[in-house]
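Go through this one:
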Amino acid sequence: MSSSNSYREQPKLDNIPCYEDYGSMLRFIPSTPHVGSRYYRSSNESALRSSFDESISPSPSIIDAMDELFIEHNQSEIQSAIADQRHDQFIESSSMPSRNIRAHHPADQGFKTSNGNGLIEPFDFVWPKCPAGIKNAPMIAKWEVHRIACHCSVDLEDVLIEYRPAWKDQDIFWEDVERHKNFHGKTFPAKCGREVWVQGHEDDFSTGRAVGYKARLRFDNINKKPKFELEIPVSQKSSRLHRKFGFNRFMELKLLFGDGCKSTLQDKDKKRALARWLVHKHHLFLHYKWAAFFIEDMKPKKEKAGLTTPKMTGKRVVLFAEQGAGLNFSCMAPKTTSHSNNLSAVMSVNPVCDRFSLLDWLLQLDSNLHRPYIKLFHRISLGLSKTTPTILLMEDSIWHRPTDIESPNHKPMNDGIGRISHSLLREVRDIMGLDFLPVAIQARIGGAKGLWMLDSTPFSSDKRWIEIYPSQIKWDCNWSDPAHRTLEIVSVSSYGGPATLNLQFIPILEERAIDRELMRRTIDERIDQHLRKDLDHAKAAMETPELFRKWIRDTSYTTFGDSHDGMSWFIGGLPRDWSGIMSFLADGGFEPRRLEFLNEIMFRHQMSRWRQMEAKLHIEIAQSTSALMTIDFLGVLAPGEVQLCFSPAFDDGKQSLDDLGGLDVLVARSPAHLPSDIQKVKAVFKPELRQFKNVIIFSSLGDESLASKLSGGDYDGDKAWVCWDPDIVNNFESVDMASKVSFEEYFRPNIQNAGILASRYGKPHYLDALLEEAFSFRLSPSFMGICTSYKESLAYDERSIRNETTVRLSMLLSELVDQEKSGFEFDDNVWYRIRKDMCGGKMFLKAPAYKSGDLVALATSNQIIDILKHSMHERIQNGLKKFSTYRLSSGIGPDKPVLTTFDMDLVSYWNDFEKEAEQITSQFEPSSLWLKDFRSSLITNIDECLSYWGDMMSGKEDYLTKAIPVYERWRNISLNVRCNSPVAAIMTSLFNNGIRRSKGLGQWDLLKASLTFKRHHQRTWFVWQMAGRQLQFIKACAVRGAGENDLLIPIPVVSRMYRVLRPDARRIERVIADQDRDFENDP
């Protein structure tokens, strides 16, 4: 019996009254109307009236909703006469008329649970009310007020708070909120980054960056209301939709389901009800009316070191503000366009704009009704892709190729890839500020996506152009719109360096090895080589400050200053993460051989890296790299040949290579499950292709593209793992792809096109029906992880990845990768049938030892991954012991540094002040006790902060949440001199001098920090988290050169420049070789 996702035939809904959305309550009751429902059948009108009769006095939520309705009426009344025309044609003008979306629900009639009753109400949710006083405030100010209120458990419904234009200064905003009677004395969350705050007050149609607003709705307990949380605003790349409509009109809502609530996504009725609430409700929040238009699975985040988070099933919903106070007009002229294009680039969007107009502008719905609606819905993600806009192209610069490059058996050989001219690529380079010319870019333009590589045609013209092949087109686009002709960059080709061996590659390498035992020994040796080299680099970095700074960058996933989560760089007195702390302290003149705090963080960082290597079994292969996959448009590479050139030359530990010509290499891409997912090919060098650096070029000849042999890959941005290690390559034999398995008896793709929905429900209602179906489909739990784990466990249990069952499951995974685009239903029933039919009824399998972390099982196993993981564990344990001993030992040479928590330079700042104050006081006012009282008061305040620190650290919240309120108390310690001593007045007046306009680095701040360090330097995390910024500045001003009195002048750097600085590897090499002059003495 086959299972299909064909759209169910539904009765047409005629003459059904539609009611406005007066409420914003989430209730999973599609069959039982209530005051919050917008869509009812005629027979339900009595129920609607009775719900009003229950309470004669209107509730605050009803009053708020009516207020919103009154605003909506005023905004839309003038434009209502032409509302219907907009659904037939998108009007590109400064006026985009508003529309009240009234969808006739395709499944509204007779929707019941399996037992015939209406659904239960497992969850209730009401959007928080926004105070009227901040109605016209910028989006970011309203967001932050609500985020603070959520953190402080303050209900804003009855809070009186007024917006002030002075809030453009972030410090004034926070001071006002902190002093507000409803927030006074509360513990506040971290501030968003200052640049995020500033950006939120500026033009929200910026072409490069956008402020991202993300909220969470946590379903932890089926018997409790979901918990609503607001995340800190983020600064991120903008998307095409952000640049068209303004980033303040978009909000992400993350639906997080705990173990106790995951059944909601498995119950078709509850899932449908949730989809309806999301799609058909107008969600009133922040005085905006929001409409949901996209949903997808949340991408799993990498676990941070030392933090364990409960596993949650997550869905990411994107909402659009159709109308509300403060929404502005758009000007779509990219800042990077040439002057000649500016006039044609100007487009405006009315602040009142509905969801239909948003999606119609992006997808040109009337032109794409022939496409499967599930796949068309999936294309919305391209409008939300985070990209860098570059060049606005004229229509005649976009060349549309009629057909792809095809093999003799009509298979596309250039799936997802086209070419771009030299001149256009040079412009992209200049706009992006690159110091090299990339030979390939992953990009979006109009309805096309994919990879574009540099045109290699000899004597090609210098004309600006880009070509688009049919395999790159995802929907028919309105190319007359300038926004759709702007080239948007996702990534560019670049030098990769050595790559790690993906865990999924290991069973394939063993399976296809000529000598399996030799392959095991070879990979084990690479583990040893990698960890030894890594440990040697860490030891060397500890000895030389310049090398230490480079080591930090080389071993960190992010660079200090990367505002990837929107938070300020600093939490209190230190940067957010270990790499940032190490960089900051090293730049101030601290050394890991001398400062125990820095030494400890370096060790923690190294330990965290190695623990992650062990968990993921990341084995660096020195003679390997990863590179974007491209094709040979000239046709000079024969089938089975590849070319890879490097710039700069690749040092693989054996030799320095400009290319791989003449070598046999292995190529693969992730995910990899089948024995054929790694292929051995011949690397050659063709002079005609020598300009292509840091990309691997596959042949365009033959019966099938090499990319498709690598787990069904294509050329729209996939990267290949390339290995030329002779011990691995020479011990490997390729195998052809197995015949494709059909799963039609279990599921079929949903090929119903959007036109069927349009004819069934009419305009504009078909879009609402489409979204309801798509949301309901995408709310289903993903089985990708479940099936992958099962397949890996089965292969482990049967000790083979090439038996028929494992191969079939591997092909099933290939189908599941495209499930969101194909639209087939895959649930517990389908999964049960597959295991019953294909796997001999094995419903549950024991997890492999390498996943369980059982060291005893690992030590006794003879399976390759277990053996390698156990080997890596033992080597890491030994390496950490050696590194711990080395870091705590004395340095090398006669001037051996002493590792300590103390630093005299930091204490001297307070000591010098105290000494000078005592001298002046004894000379002019010997009887005064002002200094004693002043010191005693400051010490009391500092010690109280330390006590508060101890109390906070004993809590269960995450570290930063506990540290921030302590820092705020320390920061607010103010100058307190109670006596009327003239000397005291003179001395304390000096506290206002020093570095002006640099908050946190005044003389009072520096003195407070110095005394804090003097008293409590052994309480390292307290001291540095409170006063790290000031202590780093004091140290930088006290660093000496060769002589005792040779004070070196620090070089201040502003934050926006600091983030782009990086260690100069060549300069550091000269320093190490003692070939560099002292730059401090350079003229």
Summary: The chain has a mean pLDDT of 83.
